[in-house]
Amino acid sequence: MTATFLLSGLMMTLFASGLHLGLPRVRPALIGTFILSLTGLALAGLAFTTDPTIRSTPATWHGRLHDTSFVLLGLTLMPSMILLGFAFRTDDRWKDLSLYTWITVALALPAFWLKGAAFYVFMLAVLVWSEVIAIRLKSTMVN
Prior knowledge:
Elements lengths: L1 H21 L4 H19 L15 H28 L7 H18 L3 H26 L1
Helix pairs in contact: 1-2, 1-5, 2-3, 3-4, 4-5
């Protein structure tokens, strides 16, 4: 899992850099891609070993870093997607993905805070969104 979190965080940061290059230079795109790169750092921070949920010992420093990274993931991913939705509206090549992005946020946000199977809905929604946006990014960079 450690390698997965580190690699996922790196890929999210690279994804944000690609979007920064591929989107129009408007404020929502600049801020949204910056915040998305912070999401990548938070995702990498999940590599720190978590503490057991039920424990009789004090929290560890690495458990606190893991928990903080999880909170930062939630506080950065959703706002970046909302801003990117606004950025998409400014370019005809991206315009049709604006509403899709906001719907993804609306569906994923409640699932992020829920435990169990609902959290997998969040992960699936964000993974599919990332793939759809990456495919569009690739097509805009080739043309």
